[in-house]
Please model this.
Amino acid sequence: QQPVQSPQAVILREGEDAVINCSSSKALYSVHWYRQKHGEAPVFLMILLKGGEQKGHEKISASFNEKKQQSSLYLTASQLSYSGTYFCGTAPAGGTSYGKLTFGQGTILTVHP
Amino acid sequence: NAGVTQTPKFQVLKTGQSMTLQCAQDMNHNSMYWYRQDPGMGLRLIYYSASEGTTDKGEVPNGYNVSRLNKREFSLRLESAAPSQTSVYFCASSEPKTRQGPNIQYFGAGTRLSVL
Model:
């Protein structure tokens, strides 16, 4: 079952902050975040493996709450280059998924000057 | 270093025609994947191959077949194309360290397929 992302779309002005959430109905082993520019391939941003872990990439960071089966992506002081669609990809805890990820439906982020 | 290469980039088919989408990676990855991307649906896994010689169904395998030709190449075949298969198709590869380990997937540029 696909993880659910919220919101579906966000519109920002340069310098504003945004949070994108990813929720799963299953226990998770890891959460991956990808960004896709229009007409291009998804590009890996970061991976979170442990409960409560936070990672950072430029001014983009993320957290993973293992107990709540949720992850959040934080974009601070947004730049025009942050525009795109953000996807979370989840790997379930236990089992033998062997690298398979289930992706959310995506959040469209638009940053205006 | 090309990464993941997909061909063709664009294709238009008539209903009932067949075609094969090609994918090759030069990162020596064991695992390869085929996804389709439709508006509002995100990326849905069609088939994957954990290693050379193995393939397995993903979330939406109906109407597709795959071949893991060797470690580098993983092809997706549409035997009798239908309008519902109009989509953008992405191939990806990765090297999971363990059966459930970190798994960064690297994507090709995509194939935009229209079935009329």
